[in-house]
Design brief:
Blueprint lengths: L18 H4 L5 E3 L2 E3 L4 E2 L2 E3 L7 E3 L6 E3 L17 H8 L2 H20 L1
Antiparallel strand pairs: 1-4, 2-3, 2-6, 5-6
């Protein structure tokens, strides 16, 4: 006996009836977006849908707009900052030395007891 599934390799809705079985598809319209690198993306939207101002480029991921002459600029990305970098933004070296001295005095006081 050969085991297996009788519907292997097919998808839901696939059958001899095709489109008539599922009904007609909704009216669509294609909108072309252009990114800074000159790539074109043409997603399709439902005819009654609100068309977004920008769309992510499918090739490079940059934002794209419908104006081929003035595509949006790439977003500026900040480099990763360590915890120490954030602390140094908030405190000067003098503040750090004062806090360290205060912590050392407290530690010495606890150890002397």
């Amino acid at each position: 006996m050969v085991g297996g599934n009788a519907i292997r390799g097919s998808r839901v809705g696939a059958g001899p009836m095709g489109e008539a079985e599922r009904g007609d598809s909704a009216p669509r319209r294609r909108v072309t977006y252009y990114c800074e690198h000159g790539h074109e993306s043409s997603p399709s939207f439902a005819a009654e849908a609100v068309i977004p101002e920008s769309w992510d480029c499918i090739r490079c991921g940059l934002p794209a707009s419908q104006d081929p002459d003035h595509p949006p600029a790439a977003p500026r990305t900040e480099p990763y900052k360590t915890h120490l970098a954030y602390v140094k933004e908030r405190r000067s070296d003098e503040d750090g030395a004062a806090i360290l001295e205060e912590a050392l005095q407290a530690l010495r006081k606890r150890r002397s007891l």
